[in-house]
Specification:
Structural class: mainly alpha
Strand content: under 5%
Radius of gyration: 36 Å
Largest sheet: none
Oligomer: single chain
Shape: extended
Mean pLDDT: 79
Low-confidence stretches: none
Distance between the termini: 140 Å
Number of strands: 0
């Protein structure tokens, strides 16, 4: 009887221990599965976030950041300031800083020089000429892209400036303050200049004075008409002149300047069209007019 009781106690203890161990192992496995699922989710989100980034964020910016120190010491301070100012007026390029842009120029020049050396050795060309061409091309191509982007941005600002000022003028004359007029502008219109005025409004809300915010916008845009408009606004604000009258005068003057620019472009159009006419259209006309006559003359002069 005692042996039976001992056996039953042993079985009960065994079953209880087995149950405890099973529960512990199951919870451990569940915890591992949850941790693995969480890691997979985080990895998937990280991959998706990386793939959603632009090419510059995934490749250009990390590449420039890795070699920024190498080319920073080789670049004169004046060249860095020059590129920084032009990038500011261009609205930036792919989110790069001036140092990163210079680094990419250095990397491009290095790669082109290595390629030119390989080509010159393979085809037995002049090494000095090939390397010189590679250096010039590598330096000028990024600067040309920067200049074209800056010109396109300034053209966009110049084209939208009269309409933007008209809306600001009407808003101020309707009773809104200058800040309210900028808020209405950001609500009703889109574009490069509108984004700059929206930035001015945000800076003023953050505590920057109107004078400093407008001056910073003028430096970023680099547009002559806009700079004159900003100067007039600052003077009117300093002297206490009516903002509405100043805006009206500036709006009329800028629209007149815009009309004069369009008329100048229209005047230059015939001269610009002359070269395509001479190079493309006139030869075609000569072929159409003189072609049949040339065939007849050839037929008459050919014996038999």
């Amino acid at each position: 009887m005692a042996a039976l009781i001992a056996f039953l106690v042993f079985v009960i203890i065994y079953i209880f221990a087995y149950y405890i161990i099973s529960v512990y192992q199951g919870s451990s496995k569940n915890m591992e599965m949850r941790l693995k699922a969480a890691e997979d989710t985080v990895a998937q989100k990280r991959t998706e976030s990386v793939m959603e980034q632009s090419f510059s964020e995934r490749f250009l910016i990390p590449l420039a950041g890795r070699y920024a120190g190498t080319f920073k010491g080789l670049t004169p301070a004046g060249a860095t300031r020059y590129i920084e100012n032009r990038m500011m007026m261009a609205g930036g390029i792919a989110g790069l800083s001036a140092e990163q842009f210079i680094t990419l120029i250095g990397i491009l020049v290095t790669v082109l020089v290595l390629i030119s050396i390989a080509i010159s050795l393979f085809f037995k060309l002049s090494l000095v000429k090939m390397v010189g061409f590679a250096v010039i091309f590598g330096l000028l191509l990024p600067l040309l892209i920067l200049s074209r982007k800056m010109a396109a941005r300034q053209e966009s600002i110049q084209r939208s400036l009269p309409d933007v000022l008209d809306l600001v003028t009407v808003s101020v004359e309707a009773g809104l303050g200058f800040d309210g007029a900028l808020a209405k502008l950001a609500e009703k219109m889109k574009g490069t200049l509108v984004a700059e005025f929206s930035r001015v409004l945000q800076e003023m809300r953050m505590g920057v004075s109107r004078k400093d915010a407008l001056k910073a916008m003028g430096e970023r845009c680099g547009n002559r008409d806009l700079s004159l408009f900003i100067t007039a606004l600052i003077q009117a604000d300093h002297l206490g002149v009516s903002m509405g009258s100043v805006l009206r005068v500036q709006s009329v003057g800028i629209r007149r300047n815009r009309r004069n620019q369009i008329e100048q472009k229209a005047t230059k159009a015939p001269i610009k069209m002359l070269f395509p006419l001479v190079a493309c259209i006139f030869p075609t006309i000569f072929i159409v007019v003189l072609g049949p006559a040339a065939l007849q003359i050839y037929t008459l002069l050919t014996p038999g």
